[in-house]
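Q: what sequence does this backbone want?
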């Protein structure tokens, strides 16, 4: 497979987390989004949670009105969020599982068990011109279920792989990596667009960018943490460079294989 361009989506949720910790208007997620685009982001992701713990409704309205790039709305498949998406018409919507007690999204959607509930939500959003993806684990049954209910795209939850690498659990990391590679191949073969996210840092983003099936990475928390030390613009530029190195390695590998064919 050739190496298509890979997009970088920046999640700005935790800029809003910091703002909400004290109240008021600073730091402004919209300002962060604009800076991210200047630094190389292709799109912006924002998760409007049921409890509004970080991103708020007015943030979504301002992002849609003022951003010069696509907005990816992360949302639960609830009637409230579906109505908001249909009203605001973001470029894309990533449907994620959501629990009030979780610190962050802890796992992927169980599409196989929830297909009857998810299918009409996906259909209505797609009919409205919104590009829908499903946030799922790297599991065959979930990918096949996503295909059956006609989801245009999936985002593979790669957090378990990232955590295993960070904690030095090599055998576990290797197994997770194999699952990610197999899942990406399967999903692309079924006609799904493939994204990845959760827990990525510079090193893991460079590695996963060598998978030709994956066309978008969505990254947030790590970059906001790095921004404390190097600034938001620099952290995003470093991430963009890491992804570009991964894609270049993929192209060089493809050329070597072609030369020896």
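A:
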């Amino acid at each position: 497979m050739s190496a298509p361009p890979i997009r970088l989506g920046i999640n700005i949720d935790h800029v809003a987390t910091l703002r909400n910790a004290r109240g008021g208007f600073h730091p402004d997620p919209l300002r962060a989004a604009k800076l991210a685009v200047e630094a190389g982001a292709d799109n912006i992701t924002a998760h409007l949670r049921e409890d509004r713990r970080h991103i708020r409704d007015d943030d979504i309205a301002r992002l849609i009105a003022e951003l010069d790039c696509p907005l990816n709305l992360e949302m639960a498949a609830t009637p409230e969020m579906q109505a908001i998406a249909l009203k605001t018409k973001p470029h894309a919507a990533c449907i994620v599982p959501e629990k009030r007690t979780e610190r962050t999204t802890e796992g992927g959607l169980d599409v196989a068990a929830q297909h009857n509930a998810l299918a009409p939500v996906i259909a209505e959003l797609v009919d409205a011109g919104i590009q829908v993806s499903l946030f799922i684990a790297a599991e065959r049954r979930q990918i096949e279920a996503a295909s059956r209910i006609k989801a245009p795209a999936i985002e593979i939850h790669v957090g378990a792989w990232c955590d295993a690498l960070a904690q030095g659990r090599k055998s576990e990391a290797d197994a997770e990596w194999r699952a990610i590679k197999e899942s990406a191949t399967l999903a692309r073969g079924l006609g799904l667009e493939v994204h990845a996210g959760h827990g990525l840092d510079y090193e893991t983003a460079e590695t996963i960018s060598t998978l030709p099936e994956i066309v978008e990475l969505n990254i947030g928390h790590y970059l906001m943490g790095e921004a404390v030390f190097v600034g938001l613009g620099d952290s995003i530029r470093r991430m963009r460079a890491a992804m570009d190195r991964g894609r270049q390695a993929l192209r060089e590998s493809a050329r070597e294989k072609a030369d020896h064919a």
